[in-house]
Amino acid sequence: MRPLLSWAGRRAVLARTYSPGPSAGYRGASGAQGYVRNPPVGTCDLQGELDRFGGISLRLARLDALDRLDAAAFQKGLQAAVQQWRSEGRTAVWLHIPILQSRFIAPAASLGFCFHHAESDSSTLTLWLGEGPSRLPGYASHQVGVAGAVFDESTRKILVVQDRNKLKNMWKFPGGLSEPGEDIGDTAVREVFEETGIKSEFRSLLSIRQQHTNPGAFGKSDMYIICRLKPYSFTINFCQHECLRCEWMDLNDLAKTENTTPITSRVARLLLYGYREGFDKIDLAVEELPAVHTGLFYKLYHKELPDNYKTMKGID
Ligand SMILES: NC(=O)C1=CN([C@@H]2O[C@H](COP(=O)(O)OP(=O)(O)OC[C@H]3O[C@@H](n4cnc5c(N)ncnc54)[C@H](O)[C@@H]3O)[C@@H](O)[C@H]2O)C=CC1
Ligand SMILES: [Mg+2]
Question: Yes or no: is domain 49-128 CATH 1.10.10.10?
Fold first, then answer.
């Protein structure tokens, strides 16, 4: 969550606080423009940035003096800062701690901060200062897995694998977890290639499964998305670490076999229906559209609109 302020604007609202120093005259400067020169050695200069929700973001990586500070002095400084931010009516504190400064996590927790999330090199803790229960948004609630149903219309064969790491060896579609910033279709194509050696291209999205407290999702929920892919190579060279078997199987056989998972069986029947009646009956196609607020682009998946609805011509 980045403040929507220019650097000059942000400087104007920096909330600067000092813990009580040994000598007189060093008090916490209140007000948005507070400033104190030459803070005494051993004190803690905690500058935060105001966000658009009235919260303070405190990034320890940007504070040079912290290298020489011990946990107790940090706790004192943070306590004074929180007190001041509370009196100024701030709603929350976001505390970003680089992994090498993790000694500051426990002092923050003792003041009521809780973990919000962690990345490989940092953690973020929050403290709600506003009225009533916290309105801060939680972190990620799902992991996203994507599989590719690679279907060759000319032979009516579908690409299936058996997972080496499962207790029961059932046929399923190759797939795996999406990487940060990766489009759903790109995950399907990448995972299919990594696991089977088959090259393919994205055609459509076929189904979405949501499952809570999935054992492989570190306590989070799992979103498992199956895409229809079209192959453009056919020689299997499967990954020995992940797969036990890999085959091109007749789609009818996959739709009928009991040696598969319920979701694979259901999607096999869906594909059979699309193959016979037209894929427009089952496909969620993708289109890229511009986002209004960010200027970025996103992918929208939905059933194809009839032409007259695309143009809205001849529609009341
Ligand atoms: N119903 C179905 O047909 C199935 C659906 N899924 C879904 O597929 C997605 C995940 O796909 P996967 O193929 O499992 O992921 P993946 O293809 O991204 O990674 C699987 C590989 O990661 C490694 N790995 C995973 N956990 C590990 C651990 N704790 N320690 C060491 N290595 C580990 C192993 O090498 C494993 O073979 C999820 O969304 C899941 O719900 C998974 C299995 C069956
Ligand atoms: Mg996999």
Answer: no
Pocket test for ligand 1, best of 239, 242, 254 (most atoms within 8 A of CB): 242
Taking the CA of 147 as reference, the closest ligand is 1
Taking the centre of ligand 1 as the mean of its atom positions, its distance from the CA of residue 195, in whole angstroms, is 11
Does 6 contact ligand 1 (Cβ within 6 A)?
A: no
User: Could you give the CA distance from residue 147 to residue 207 in angstroms, rounded to a whole number?
Assistant: 10
What CATH number was assigned to the domain covering residues 142-281?
A: 3.90.79.10
239 CB near ligand 1 (under 6 Å): no
Q: CB of 177 closer than 6 A to ligand 1?
A: yes
Cα–ligand 1 centroid distance for 217 (angstroms) = 10
The rounded distance, in Å, linking the Cα atoms of 69 and 67 is 6
Q: Report the DSSP beta bridge partners of residue 17.
A: 46
Tell me, what's the pLDDT at 43? 58
Whole-angstrom distance, CA of residue 85 vs CA of residue 73 = 18
Q: Which tokens hold the place of 145?
A: 């897995």
Q: Is 241 in the pocket of ligand 1 (CB under 6 A)?
A: yes
- Ion ligand 2: residues, CB < 5 A: 176
Q: Which of 137-146, 237-246, 289-298 has the lowest mean pLDDT?
A: 289-298
Q: What's the rounded Cα separation, in Å, for the pair 212 and 109? A: 29
Quick: pLDDT tens for 26-46.
333 333 433 333 344 455 678
* Annotated domain spans of the chain: 49-128, 142-281
The predicted structure's pLDDT at residue 38: 38
Q: What is the pLDDT of residue 104?
A: 96
